[in-house]
From TrEMBL:
Membership in a protein family: Belongs to the WrbA family.
One Pfam family per UniProt: FMN_red
Keyword Flavoprotein: yes
Lineage: Bacteria, Pseudomonadati, Pseudomonadota, Gammaproteobacteria, Oceanospirillales
Name this polypeptide is given: NAD(P)H dehydrogenase (Quinone)
Alphabetized SUPFAM superfamilies for the sequence: Flavoproteins
Organism (species): Halomonas organivorans
EC number: 1.6.5.2
InterPro entries the UniProt entry points to: Flavodoxin/NO_synth, Flavodoxin_CS, Flavoprotein-like_sf, Flavoprotein_WrbA-like, FMN_Rdtase-like_dom
MF annotations from Gene Ontology: electron transfer activity; FMN binding; NAD(P)H dehydrogenase (quinone) activity
Record keywords, A-Z: Flavoprotein, FMN, Oxidoreductase
Transmembrane regions: none
């Protein structure tokens, strides 16, 4: 039996599809590297009521993540639209269920990164990325942003930050990723894949 490849978990929440499009670009970047694959997963929306109204499997897009997806990943990319300069509640809700992984140190020394989409250019892209960084540090992960060796960071007219890839979706959330945003998301996927392979080899993980 052939051993399965290590994978980067690309875990995101997307309301209108922009963050999902970014996740797919990161996945393409991961899978451009030999010896590793991307695993796309999403999280369900949350409701102020206690009644479950959504199916267990989404009608389209990635399936819902579980803790084992996170436990066994070689690297992690978190993606969320911004909500008042913070990650969206559904992603935060999922992260809040990961205490058993934290107690067991399951994610220590694994590389992680984050990406986001906003409807306005100054709508909290960087603070949203930082809000996703904080729980990753508590888990002992090694955070990796985007270095300025990625020249699109200096050329972009919309999204793109050293804290992670970002996208300007527009006020109707229907603006597609432009070339710079696509390049940066792809590069971020490549970087987290390379780091995952390097750290796994150096430390005998995952």
């Amino acid at each position: 039996m052939t051993a399965s490849l290590p994978y980067v978990l690309i875990l995101y929440y997307s309301r209108h599809g922009a963050t999902r499009a970014m996740a797919e670009r990161l996945a393409a970047g991961v899978e451009s590297c030999r010896g590793i694959e991307a695993r796309l997963r999403t999280v369900p929306p949350v409701s102020p009521t206690c009644e479950a109204v959504d199916p267990e499997i989404p009608e389209e897009g990635a399936i819902y993540a579980d803790l084992d997806d996170l436990r066994h990943c070689a690297g992690l990319a978190l993606g969320s639209p911004t909500r008042f300069g913070n990650m969206a509640a559904p992603l935060k809700h999922f992260i809040d269920t990961t205490s058993e992984l934290w107690l067991g140190g399951a994610l220590v020394d694994k590389p992680a990164t984050a990406f986001t989409s906003t409807s306005s250019l100054h709508g909290g892209q960087e603070t949203t990325l930082i809000s996703m960084l904080l729980p990753l540090l508590h888990h002992g992960m090694v955070y990796a942003g985007l270095p300025y060796s990625e020249t699109a960071l200096m050329e972009t007219q919309a999204g793109g930050t050293p804290y992670g890839a970002s996208h300007l979706a527009g006020k109707r959330s229907d603006r597609p990723l432009d070339e710079s945003e696509r390049q940066l998301a792809h590069a971020q996927g490549q970087r987290i894949a390379r780091l995952a392979l390097s750290l796994a080899h150096a430390g005998g993980r995952p």
